[in-house]
Amino acid sequence: MSIYKDCDVRGVYGREITAPECRLIGRALATMAPGKILLGGDLRLSTPELKGALMEGLLESGAELVDLGTIPTPVLYYALKHSDAVAGATVTASHNPPEYNGVKFMISSEPVTRKVMDALHDIVLRGDFAQKQGTLTHWDVTRDYLDSLEERFTAPKPLHILVDAGNGAMSRVAPEAFRRAGYRVTELFCEPDGSFPNRSPNPADYSCLGKTSEAVRACGADLGVAFDGDGDRAVFLDETGAPVQNEKSLVLFIRALLKDHPTPVVYDQKSSSVIREAVLEMGGTPLPEKSGHAFIKKRFLDNGAAIAGEVSGHFFFGELGYDDGLFAALTMAELVARSGQTLSELVSGIVCPPITPDLRIACPYAEQQSWLDRVEELARSLGAEISHLDGVRADFPDGWFLMRKSVTAEQITLRAEARTRERLQELLDQVGSALPEAARDALRL
After folding, report:
1. C-alpha pair distances (Å), 179 with each of 128, 149, 173
2. Average pLDDT, rounded, for the chain
3. Quick one: angle between helices 141-152 and 73-81, nearest 10?
4. Is the pTM of this model over 0.85?
5. DSSP class per residue in 118-183
6. DSSP for residue 270
């Protein structure tokens, strides 16, 4: 499996992604984007080695390199927006388990496309690198980033915030930002540790938030926020310690940001239908998109959306032009503080129909397309409206399902929603009837 994914470079450290490969990636990036390049890295244990190799490659091919130090990924986006750099990169595997690492990069302000990734990989394979010695300077941009948030956010009232950084890149940054804004802060897992000893770096897996829920209740916080490994995603917990479904958080942002100025809203197509309904209710235009950071961001930028979001906890803000988990958290705290209600009260009226999580079904790569073809044929026979934004989506008057190939494993991924739990199981049974018998156990609620 190639480490050159649709949106970034990523793989298991030492087996799939190595320092020699990162050096070549650095050379290729400096060749593609000659000029000033910003470089950061997260807290993973393998990041210093990989970042050092990437830096070596960038300098060998002439980059005017600016080292940003250890940063959350949104700090790179902030730095790119507030500098004349032609590109930026950070060594991170985002929300993946500790054994993974990778490189996220941008050329100009545009998200990486498959075409750009293929061009980078092609330069690596050909070894056709620029031959020029670069320069190295340093920028403590995190200070500037925090100053900008302090200018933007002031607590309407001093709520009590539980900050769970998951020992990741927001460990030092997020508590300071909330305190500067005037909130009372209790810290949880805010000691930087790239082995992620206390929970998964993916808070969208709500099952890993048990200790976070307990801490919210124990300290009497008004709001909890859990960040992913590199700080570009956020998951919220209400004052009872209950995680708030990311679609419901997005609905709150939609209601606030479209209230006086309706715009399009971009969201991944596997989101609950509650998103589409909220956008229409606020006079906006719903724009479903293929799942994936780069796909969502490009559509978001192209359409001038005030807000965009993914089920995974990425929230993009038109005010910024990119996604930022800490900006999202400060915005959520402001919404709760201004409302005069608790977070649980704010989301109580947002009712998502029964919906499955991502159901992953083992399927060899060679058979994946035939599975999708069989399921599409079945859906057409049942009168569904079919779309192919990513995989096969079948819409019925009372529900839908989406089946798509996994880009990282020999799996098919399925998600479905219906008006009732009984109808949801019926949809899953219908999909199962078109698949091998061994696959059907994964489709039981």
Report:
1. 49, 11, 10
2. 96
3. 80
4. yes
5. HHHHHHHHHT----B--EEEE--HHHHHHHHHHHH---SS--EEEEE-TTSTTTTHHHHHHHHHT-
6. T
Cα–Cα separations (whole angstroms), residue 373 to 60, 401, 408: 48, 14, 20
Pairing of strands 307-309, 315-317: antiparallel
Distance CA(276)–CA(125), nearest Å, equals 43
Contact predicate 404/412, CB 8 Å: yes
Rounded Cα distance between 275 and 374, Å, is: 29
Torsion-angle region of residue 287: left (phi > 0), alpha (psi -120 to 50) or beta? beta
- Of 46, 61, 94, 200, the catalytic one is 94
Convert the pLDDT of each residue in 157-199 to its tens digit. 999 999 999 999 999 999 999 999 999 999 999 999 999 999 9
Task: Please indicate whether residue 148 is annotated as part of the active site.
Answer: no
Nearest Cα to Cα of residue 226 among 170, 180, 184: 170
By C-alpha distance, which of 69, 74, 199, 72 is closest to 138?
A: 69
**Residue (of 137, 184, 180) closest to 162 by Cα position:** 184
The answer, yes or no, to whether residue 147 has pLDDT greater than 80, is yes
User: Quick one: how far is CA 255 from the chain centroid?
Assistant: 21
The span from the CA of 245 to the CA of 249, in Å, is 7
pLDDT at 111: 82
Q: How many whole angstroms separate alpha carbon 390 and alpha carbon 397?
A: 21
**Amino acid identity at 34:** P
Backbone angles phi, psi at 256, to 5 degrees: -75, -45
Q: Of 89, 114, 86, 117, which Cα lies nearest the Cα of 23? A: 89
pLDDT tens readout for residues 196-248: 999 999 999 999 999 999 999 999 999 999 999 999 999 999 999 999 999 99
User: What are 268's two structure tokens?
Assistant: 């991944």
Structure tokens given for 284: 């906006």
